[in-house]
Amino acid sequence: MERYQLEDLEVIFDCAGRDDWGKFSFPVWYGIPVKLNWREYRYDFNLRGGLKRVSGGSRVWPDPQEALKRTDGNDLIYYGVHGYESTYDLIKNYYVPYNGIYESDLFEENPLQGPPVRQALENFDALAIELGRLAKEASCERPREFLRRVSAMNREALAAEAGKLRRIMGANLPILPPETIDVDYEVIPLILTEGCAYNCRFCLFKTAGDFRVRSPHNIAAQIRSLKDFYGDDLINYNSLMLGQNDALAAGEELLVNAAGMAYDILNLSASYHRGRPNLFMFGSVDSFLAASDSLLDRLDHLPYRTSINVGLESFDQEMLDRLGKPLQAERVREAFRKMQSINRSRANIAVSCNFVLGADLPFRHTEAIKVVLATETTARGKGAVYLSPLIGTSHRREILKEFREIKMSSPLPVYIYLAQRL
C-alpha cells in the first residue's frame, strides 16, 4: 500500500481488496481501487481514473456501512442496509442494491434522491476541480499523473465514457442475469444477439427490432475495443456477460468461439480475482431446449464457470397466455427438467430460472410453482430459482408472503430477482 498526503487529500494506491466475491454483512471492497479521502468522504476510483464508489463519515453519510456505486454504464446503485428484514434470505445479498430505475413495490424508499447522495456528488464535482490544482503541486509522478486523470474524469466525462462503451457494444444491456449479483454486477459486456423471438407483453426489458445474431467480425471488433476501453482496469474483472436477452440462441460455433476469444484477448486468466472466470448469459426456453449435448460439452470445457438463466415465468398455461408468452406449459416443464439434469451432470455449468410473482396472479400459478419445486432436487449450490415481481401490479406484504411460501416448499434456493442493467 502506498500513501500520499496532499494538503487535506489522502491518496492510497495498491489498496488490495477481497479477491473472492464473498458475501459479508459488513463493508468490504473488491479488487484494486485507488482510494481518495477528502472532506469526510471516501472515494474509490478504478484504475482508469473513473469514479467507482462513494461513502462517508457520520456527519455527511446516513450509515458508514452503506455506499454509493457507479457502474460502467454510468448508473448509480445505492447499497442500503436499513429497513429490510432478512435481506440475504430475500435477495442473496446483505445489502439492497437500489438503482432507482426498475422500481418495485418491495422497496418504499429511494435513497438515491436523498440529500446525502446529492451532496456527495456535488462534493465530487468540487474534488475534480481541486485535483487539477493538487496535481500540479504533487512532487511524485504517480499521484500527480493519477490526480490529473481523475480531474479530467468529471461527471460530464464519465457520462461520455459510458456512451463510448455503448457505442462499442452497438446496443444496450437492459437487464443483467440475476447471478451477476454474485460478482457485484462487475461484468464486461459482449453482445452476440439482439432482440427476442418472444416479445412477451409483460416484459419491461425489450430491445428494438427482431431477433438477430451478430457477425463474427462484429464480435471480434467488440472484444478488441473492449480491451482498449478497460485498459489498466482489466485486472479488476473476471466476468463476461454475453448479451442481450438470448445469447444462448447465437449458435454453438459463434457462442463458443466468442467466449474463447474474449478469454484470451481480455486476458481474464490474469484477473486479480481468484478462481475460474465467470460467463453469464440468458437463454430462452426454446434456445435452452435446443442446446445440444455438443454445445453443453464445449461450454463445460471452457475455462469459465458458466451461468445460464432461463425465463420460465409460469408452469400454468393460462398464466403464460396472460403474460403473452408464446409457449405451451409442457415446454416450460421440459425446460425445468433439463435445467435439473444439467445442474446434476455438468461440473462447470449452472442453470437458473425465473418465475413471475405478484399478489394478484391466479392461484394456480403459484400453486404449480410450489408443487413442481417441492418434487425436485438439484446439485448442491446450483439451480437457483428467482422470482420476478411484476412491477406496478403487486403489494409488498402479499408478494413477500408468496415468496416465503414458495421458498419454504422448495429444496432449491429461491430468491427475489432485483433487475439491474449495465
How big a fraction of the residues is strand?
15-25%
Structural class: alpha/beta
Q: What is the total domain count?
A: 2
The amount of helix comes to 25-40%
Q: Largest beta sheet, briefly?
A: 8 strands, antiparallel
Looking at CATH, the homologous superfamily of the largest domain is Aldolase class I
CATH topology name of the largest domain: TIM Barrel
Structural commentary:
It is globular, with a radius of gyration of 22 Å. About 35% of the residues lie in helices and about 20% in strands. It has two domains: about 1-160, no CATH class; about 170-415, Alpha-Beta Barrel (TIM Barrel). The protein is of the alpha/beta class and about 425 residues long. The strands form three sheets. An eight-stranded antiparallel β-sheet has the order 1-2-3-4-5-6-7-8, with helices on one face. About 40% of the residues are buried. The model has no long low-confidence stretch (mean pLDDT about 90). The chain has twelve helices and 17 strands. Helix 2 (about 115-135) packs across helix 3 (about 140-150).
Quickly list its features.
single chain, 422 residues, TIM Barrel, 8-stranded antiparallel sheet, 7-stranded parallel sheet, 35% helix
What is the topology?
Blueprint: E1 2-6, E2 9-13, E3 34-38, E4 41-45, E5 51-56, E6 67-70, E7 76-80, H1 87-91, E8 96-98, H2 115-137, H3 141-152, H4 155-169, E9 188-191, E10 193-194, E11 212-213, H5 216-230, E12 239-243, H6 252-265, E13 278-283, H7 285-290, H8 293-301, E14 305-313, H9 317-323, H10 329-345, E15 349-357, H11 363-374, E16 385-389, H12 396-409, E17 414-416
Parallel strand pairs: 9-12, 12-13, 13-14, 14-15, 15-16, 16-17
Antiparallel strand pairs: 1-2, 2-3, 3-4, 4-5, 5-6, 6-7, 7-8, 10-11
